[in-house]
Amino acid sequence: VGDSSVLSCPLNPNITLLTWKVSPKVGGPCNLGYRADTNTTDRTNCSDSINWKFGPDLSPDLEIQQVGIAQEGNYICEVVTPEGNFHRTYHLTVLVPPRLSLHCDEHGNPVCQAAAGKPPAQVSWLQESNSSLEEESHDNGTVTVLSRLSACNANVTDITCVVFHPAGNWSESIAC
Question: What does the record say about its membrane topology (predicted)?
Fold first, then answer.
């Protein structure tokens, strides 16, 4: 989320026609086209964040600026040349890193939360294993994972929560 992504298309010096067909999970389809004989481009229903990387005369690559969950979906590049038609398909999946928080509940038990991650984060504890896990799905496709540690060992002063996610791993410690 928030980064730019560049999708490449097969480069061929004899391109007659080049089309990017975008089918996002959210919203309608978008098309970008280039005709070599007239050296013209056309775009249909594409947001300003989706565009040619450098311009069709330099590169057939597609750039998605400030990627968001709404850009998830299929991206197909179709190239027409005298030698034949070629295509490349991408399925764009957007990772959303969770926000980590750790606090003590009203009973003095540590509570670790990995909020609004996509895909859901894995939450675990370094020192203890007696915990409960809850997941809450959100409308935007993200998931909040909450782990509550119960029956803490009184000899342990700092409890460490560890969050594993494809966008990164984090840990935080607390004394309850």
Answer: Single-pass membrane protein
